[in-house]
Amino acid sequence: ETKDDSAVLWLDEIQDGIIRSNSETEDAQRFARGILAINEAVERGDSAQTLSALRSPDVGLYGVTAECAQTYQNELSEVKRNKAAQGENGSEWVQHWVKGGYHYYFNLHTNEGGWEEPPGFTPNNTHLSKEDIQSTISGVSAAYNREQLWLANENLITKLQARCRGYLIRRQFSDRMKFLREQTPAITCIQSHYRGQKQRKAFRRRLEYLNNHSDEVVKIQSYTRMYQARKRYRDRLKYFRDHINDIVKIQAFIRANKARDDYKTLINAEHPPMAVVRKFVHLLDQSDQDFQEELEVMKLREEVVTLLRSNQQLENDLNLMDIKIGLLVKNKITLQDVVSHSKKLTKKNKEQLSDMMALNKQKGGLKALSKEKREKLEAYQHLFYLLQTNPTYLAKLIFQMPQNKSTKFMDSVIFTLYNYASNQREEYLLLRLFKTALQEEIKSKVDMIQEIVTGNPTVIKMVVSFNRGARGQNALRQILSPVVKEIMDDKTLNIKTDPVDIYKSWVNQMESQTGEASKLPYDVTPEQAMSHEEVRTRLDSSIKNMRSVTDKFLSAIVSSVDKIPYGMRYIAKVLKDTLHEKFPDAGEDELLKIVGNLLYYRYMNPAIVAPDAFDIIDLSAGGQLTTDQRRNLGSIAKMLQHAASNKMFLGDNAHLSIINEYLSQSYQKFSVTAWPYRKYGQTVTQTVCRTVALHPQSVIMSAMLYRFITKKN
């Protein structure tokens, strides 16, 4: 009140007062309902609902923490119970102090309220007010914050407590130790008297007890010792039974080593002990069954050698027939020549078949022969036995014959004479022939060490040809087949190391893409081709791919060196030793190049270049390698050849000089790991040959014998 009669309220002021009053009434009503919602949530015991009601902005509570929801519920319930314990008046009205210093009266049943105090107003004494709720929240939140503070500093509190307790314990321990040190003489005296008395008393009791039960003690000891002995025996027996297979293997290994040592003593010692001789006396007593089995094996071996030689001859005739057909296609010969060769081939097959039939008829034994033929047969037996066991004659004959006439004929004669190395004896004798012939040829013909590489010795060709047979073919297939298949299956691999080819391929690609003729010249020199960035990029990519696939081949060869036929590795050892003996000034590196040329270039390289011709891969009928595949394999073979011989890319191949370091590293792998050789361990002599049940035989056709004699003459 202004006590001014002339003071009046304007309409805008009245309207603002009404709006403000309505707003404050709505806020007070929302506040009262929020307090009611908190009380109802507390009565229901739902902590989540209580937390939601406490967080209501209408109530205006502060310090509410979600982690304390259950604690809020418990504390508010406790406050409500305490109010109810003082007596409930059942009033439906409550009074709230709201912002502005006014009191708002709210009906709990109708959820309505007003600013005027209702008649007979009595506030509900169990209803929680904002002050009750806020004080509870503040207390719980403060306790929670203190707890979190303690937890955050738990390590510091623990350290502080530990130091305090440690100090107290150390002081207590120090006081106790000080007291004990002061009383040490008395303590020692008391302990010694007590222990002495206790021990003497126990000893007297034990001695008296044992004296009274000596018989029982003896019996118990005997039973105990018996049980322990039986248990040890059973455990040992069980161990032997559980490891019976291991015991048998160990015994067999020891006995085998002992038997081998005794046999070596019997063979090599000039006067072997009687005990060793006695062990092998039973081997001299051969039964008729042993003789029959040996005879059956020899007959089968004869048939195998005969069929093998026949197949080789048929293969040679078939190759000649292919050549004549090719000449006929090119009109170099007439059809009559092909028909004539076909008739000769048919006639030859019939003759070979009749020879085999005649051979089968002659298996009746020596009784079917006349005296003159028997003597001639024995003479030939001595001749061939001498040629087998003394390699000097054939060795001198091999390298003295002209190379253009000796290869196929000498291969046929020598392999037949040694039965194609069908057993260990023939294999050993054939390797000894190769060794002797190689040594003889090096000593007589080789004046410079490089002539072994450039001269193509006959013995080397025979060794390679022999080791490319069935066993050597399987070894090549096992070593090279996986990596060759991988190269062939990679359709994206395209190795080109000639800059001119890369340049022309690039020009053709640009013309096909643009549909227009390129302005670049088509015929260029390698230097002009290398001047283009695209050519250099493609060349680097090809070199990278070539190194990658070459590494695969090198790894396959190095890791599978034991699969290389032993004959190849043995001849490699003989070649190296013989060259070192004749050329003592030659370095180890130069000798290893010769060995690498033999084992890789002569033996493996052709199979990599033409895997289809050497049966390294399986091709479908009519299938053949593509031009890209052959070029890729040829590039890889060239890389491996340079690596095996430690030959660098120079001159016309100077653009490949960046891989010379890689070639040197690959050569080290070849020389260190890829060409091992061992000493040949067999000792087959004429004396050993006489101990077999049947004399060794060689199957030679009459036509072959005639050709051998006429050639020799």
Descriptive overview:
This protein has 713 residues and is an all-alpha fold. The protein has helices spanning 11-44, 47-54, 69-85, 130-152, 154-182, 184-212, 214-242, 244-268, 274-279, 288-329, 335-361, 371-389, 392-400, 403-417, 424-445, 451-454, 458-467, 470-489, 499-514, 526-530, 533-559, 566-582, 588-609, 627-645, 660-674, 686-689, 702-712, and strands spanning 93-98, 102-107, 113-114. A three-stranded antiparallel β-sheet has the order 1-2-3, with helices on one face. A hairpin with a 5-residue loop joins strand 2 (102-107) and strand 3. It is flat. The model is unreliable at 359-364, 673-695 and 701-713 (pLDDT under 50). Residues 412-645 form the Ras-GAP domain. GO terms for molecular function: actin filament binding; calmodulin binding; GTPase activator activity. One of its GO terms (cellular component) is cell cortex. InterPro entries: IQ_motif_EF-hand-BS, P-loop_NTPase, RasGAP_CS, RasGAP_dom, Rho_GTPase_activation_prot, WW_dom.
Q: In percent terms, what proportion of residues is strand?
A: under 5%
Residues in helices, as a percent range: over 70%
Strand order in the sheet with the most strands: 1-2-3
- Give the CATH superfamily of the largest domain: GTPase Activation - p120gap, domain 1
Number of helices: 27
Helix-and-strand structural type: mainly alpha
End-to-end gap: 161 Å
What sort of overall outline do the alpha carbons produce when their principal axes are compared?
flat
Please outline the major beta sheet.
3 strands, antiparallel
Give the mean pLDDT.
77
Kindly state the number of beta strands: 3
CATH topology of the largest domain: GTPase Activation - p120GAP, domain 1
